[in-house]
Specification:
alpha/beta, N-terminal domain of TfIIb, Rossmann fold, Dimethylsulfoxide Reductase, domain 2, 6 domains, 7-stranded mixed sheet, 30 helices, about 20% strand, binds ligand MGD, binds iron/sulfur cluster, binds molybdenum atom, Mopterin_OxRdtase_4Fe-4S_dom
């Protein structure tokens, strides 16, 4: 039982994980104390990785038309159908849609096959939806897509500005490092986000700005810096090109009062932000989807970078604009050129680059122009113009904007191949061929995190069934298409060496991305590779990757923000929950992670809820011009008026409600093609139901015929929330397994309670009510974990003989501590700090992901005392 050092499967923080197999597919997960990204810390998702490595739901064999086949048949068919389409309709009639969750080696060969040998650039990636605006911003400002920051800067900064980033939930270990810097050196934290998220909980300042007004804010800040004499004249003179009329255009933002009005924030708050910025030159501005996922995403990125360039807050310790990446290998994908708009090794489509790639790869037909960006690619597909599509490691039927459009496109494509580790996804239901890929824990290669650190992912489990590495699958198809020698690799290290060689090939310093030091790395050294950062401290010498080596300010203007429409009076913002990852194919397997948010909420301001006729905890239908879905109403003080927020995680696999992917409009940034996921005109109406309740079941629930049904994993089973109209009996009949039944049915009072046992063990139980009289879920769910369920009366009552206190929703996933427990302990034991709560209940003392939530409860309790 030796520990294997690998990296976390989830976010771009890129934490090191130490995994020890303790038997079968059981694994003990620890933070890797030697990894520079996390030094042993892990968040809730990383901590509970062990609950996601079983075989449940895995795709174990290749399938053609739903039938199990051998690898040879599946690979032959894929190669033949792609070759046919290319022969009959040309190379641009086929496409790959790939992902920042592939390893660098997988990504490299996918890009090489499409751009180098098929000769089309129709390979795009879910990174288009994620950070393509940051890529454009970097290219425009620096001449290369380089993130000029590292986590060491977090330890040296005096001011953190988080723009459009719910860091406490989405990059929790970065958030913990920020908190550590604040504790150690009194660094200040400003959060710029229309919502009051848990990231704002302990912030020095929260600017709840009007969505889409970030350019006004940043231009206003820059105008302030200019007024106050904070520009770095020497740096501007030596290292930065300033477009004509740049300062004049900025004058429009010179009036702080007008900026406050545009951004809809208090003038005092705006001025506090400006003063903090003036006083603390060691500033790191971290940004993510609130900035990128906008139809003005690229300009918003450049508005941030402009401020850093003009004040010289770049290339120095503790001072940088920092685009934090979402997926574990978003950065690796950028390095291999996985976007339709880039070429490998940070090259663009300049003719000399195309020629250089042709020489290096020994390829005749290297694509000479950019390909279709994700949304356009699916539009073209819906028109029937893409004849063969290969989707790898992403779930576009959920994650593209206007997902119904994406589904129509998949349905219109004559040949769809899906490589995934999971058998049934909303995307794979459209696949003609399904190819089983190795999952985290089985796959082997490298990833690059937000701070340019390349780390190994290592295998510690055997392959599931016949699953194969993605690089193997891709190269097998390439070889069958006739490119035998160009795709001959025996192991990931072979691909990595080629990738490293390409980065240094005829690169006389023009591109900072150069990992030539590894061009001849031995297999043993690759296996033993320690995490290392490429690019050192970029731009520290004031030299950039542009032809004249100078950075560029970019003229960006705040566009007028449209007023709400009568039919669509609200705007829909979408994003993430703390303990779920995207379409839940993996976090959905973990009972512990399921408990933080068991249902998809539509969060709404109390006044809007009244105006729309909604009540907290009831159901509502959210509609946009693209589609509609049902959510549980969560009235929230964190929402601005007129704005609602929905999570992105629920899919057809878990739910008939909360299907957020159907809602966003497919409008994109004109430069990057990134969709504006955060702002869609919408309306909300009550969704009346006659009865509600829940089902607890040991076996996976089948399709459930109820107006609203969402399921989450529980220990030894599932918990399904249900609501509907009309008769309840048919539903009960359809969802309960055979066995010994005990029931309490009171038709007059509209109460159905049925439990099914087998040899005394609970198999399933359903509780439905027309009056809202329902037991707590906790105890009944716990009955699945016992050999002998409690006596019939307790099962029907839904509570133990000696009543248990209601713990409320789970806040701490590590120690299973509920909201009500924490509130009670704070009151009874007069706890005054997060540490004190940790000592009393354990909550917050392990992974730390729930510390902001505890902070909020402490704040509320204190408020009540006052
Ligand atoms: N728990 C969890 N962590 C994850 C992921 C996950 O699925 N779950 N996914 C990973 C991935 S791929 C990504 S890309 C990252 C995303 O990480 P984040 O970007 O932090 O996450 P989001 O929730 O998408 O959006 C961030 C915030 O942008 C705000 N916002 C909306 N509109 C505006 C605006 O106009 N201006 C500003 N300033 N802010 C705005 C939203 O209110 C939201 O709170 O998370 C990564 N980490
Ligand atoms: N409305 C709205 N939509 C959004 C966003 C938003 O904020 N709002 N955010 C966008 C962003 S930033 C992102 S990154 C996307 C994410 O969206 P997706 O990429 O669609 O989401 P995932 O659930 O991560 O899908 C990954 C798939 O790959 C599979 N997989 C995992 N590992 C491997 C592997 O090694 N090999 C193979 N072949 N398969 C694997 C998983 O089982 C899963 O099915 O969503 C985007 N969509
Ligand atoms: S912050 Fe959490 S999800 Fe992200 S890499 Fe680290 S442990 Fe994994
Ligand atoms: Mo992302």
């Amino acid at each position: 039982m030796t520990a294997v050092r690998t990296t976390c499967a989830y976010c771009g923080v890129g934490c090191g994980v130490s995994a020890t197999v303790t038997g079968g597919r059981q694994v003990d997960i620890r933070g890797d104390v030697d990894h520079p990204a996390n030094r042993g810390r892990l968040c809730s998702k990383g901590t509970h990785l062990g609950e996601t490595v079983g075989l449940e739901g895995r795709l174990l064999h290749p399938e053609i038309a739903g039938k199990k086949v051998g690898w040879d048949r599946a690979l032959d068919l894929v190669a033949r159908r792609f070759a046919d389409a290319i022969r009959r309709h040309g190379p641009d009639s086929v496409a790959f849609y790939v992902s920042g969750q592939l390893l660098t080696e997988d990504y490299y060969v996918a890009n090489k096959l499409m751009k180098g040998f098929i000769g089309s650039s129709n390979i795009d990636t879910n990174s288009r939806l994620c950070m393509s605006s940051a890529v454009v911003g970097h290219n425009r400002a620096f001449g290369e897509d380089v993130v000029p920051a590292s986590y060491d800067d977090l330890d040296a900064a005096d001011l953190f500005v988080l723009v459009g980033s719910n860091t406490a939930w989405c990059h929790p270990v970065v958030y913990q490092r920020i908190q550590a810097a604040r504790a150690a050196r009194g660094a200040q934290l400003v959060v710029v986000d229309p919502r009051r998220t848990e990231t704002c909980e302990d912030a020095d300042l929260h600017l709840a700005l009007r969505p889409g007004s970030d350019v006004a804010l940043m231009n206003g800040l820059l105008a302030h810096c200019r007024r106050e004499g904070l520009l770095d004249a020497g740096f501007l003179r030596d290292s930065v090109n300033i477009p004509e009329g740049f300062w004049e255009a900025l004058d429009a933002h010179g009036d702080a009062g007008a900026v406050a009005t545009t951004c809809d924030v208090a003038l005092e708050d705006l001025q506090r932000f400006f003063h903090l910025f003036s006083a603390r030159p060691r500033t790191v501005t971290l940004f993510s989807q609130g900035v990128n996922q906008s139809v003005r995403g690229s300009d918003q990125v450049n508005a941030i970078i402009n401020v850093h360039l003009a004040t010289g807050r770049i290339g120095k310790p503790g001072a940088a604009p920092f685009s934090i990446t979402g997926q574990p290998n978003a950065m690796g994908g950028r390095e291999v050129g996985g976007l339709a708009s880039t070429l490998a090794a940070h090259m663009d489509f300049a003719p000399e680059n195309v020629a250089r790639l042709a020489r290096f790869w020994g390829a005749q037909d290297v694509a000479a122009k950019p390909g279709l960006k994700a949304v356009d690619l699916f539009r073209r597909m819906r028109e029937g113009r893409i004849k063969a599509l290969w989707v790898m490691a992403t779930n576009p039927a959920v994650s593209l904007p206007d997902a119904n459009m994406a589904r129509e496109a998949l349905a219109a494509c004559p040949f769809v191949v899906v490589s995934d580790c999971i058998a049934d996804t909303d995307t794979s239901s459209h696949a003609h061929v399904k190819l089983p890929a190795l999952a985290w824990g089985e796959k082997d290669g490298t990833v690059t995190n937000s701070e340019r650190v390349i780390s190994r992912q290592r295998a510690f489990l055997p392959p599931a069934g016949e699953a194969k590495p993605d690089w193997w699958i891709i190269t097998q198809v390439a070889r069958r298409m006739g490119w035998e020698s160009a795709f001959y690799y025996a192991r990931p290290a072979d691909i990595y060496r080629e990738h490293a060689r390409l980065s240094t090939y005829q690169n006389a310093g023009a591109r900072l991305f150069n990992i030539g030091a590894h061009a001849a790395i031995s297999n043993a050294a690759y296996d033993a590779m320690e995490p290392w950062r490429w690019g050192g401290a970029p731009f520290a010498d004031g030299r950039f990757s542009t032809p004249d080596r100078r950075a560029r300010l970019v003229k960006v203007e705040q566009r007028a923000l449209p007023a709400p429409l009568e039919r669509w009076p609200l705007t829909l913002n979408t994003g993430r929950y703390r303990d779920h990852w995207h379409t839940m194919t993996r976090t959905g397997l973990s009972p512990r992670l399921a408990r933080h948010r068991q249902e998809p909420l539509i969060e709404i301001h109390a006044a809007d809820a009244i105006a729309c006729g909604l009540k907290d905890g009831e159901l509502a239908r959210v509609e946009t011009p693209q589609g509609a879905s049902i959510y549980r109403v969560g009235i929230s003080e964190g929402q601005r008026r007129g704005e609602i927020f929905a999570p992105i995680h629920w899919t057809d696999q878990q739910s008939s409600g909360g299907r957020t992917g159907l809602l966003p409009r497919p409008t994109v940034d004109p430069h990057s093609g990134q969709p504006g996921f955060k702002l869609t005109p919408a309306r909300v109406d009550p969704f009346p139901v006659e009865w509600s309740g829940f089902l607890v079941t040991r076996t996976a629930p089948r399709a459930i015929n109820a107006a609203y049904a969402t399921r989450v994993r529980a220990p030894q089973g599932w918990l399904v929330e249900l609501s509907g109209n009309g008769e309840m009996a048919p539903l009960i009949k359809s969802v309960l397994p055979a066995g010994e039944r005990i029931e309490a049915i009171d038709v007059a009072r509209g109460q159905f309670r049925v439990a099914v046992l087998m040899n005394g063990q609970l198999q399933a139980a359903i509780y439905l009510s027309r009056t809202g009289n329902l037991p707590q879920r906790d105890w009944i769910v716990s009955q699945l974990e016992t050999e002998q369920a409690g006596p019939a009366v307790t099962l029907l009552a839904g509570r133990p003989a000696t009543p248990q206190a209601d713990r409320g929703p789970i806040v701490c996933a590590c120690f299973d501590v509920g909201l009500k427990q924490i509130i009670a302990a704070i009151g009874e034991q007069r706890l005054a700090s997060v540490e004190a709560v940790g000592n009393a209940l354990g909550a917050g003392s392990n992974c730390g992901s729930c510390r902001p939530a505890i902070q909020r409860l402490l704040g509320e309790a204190l408020g009540e005392h006052a």
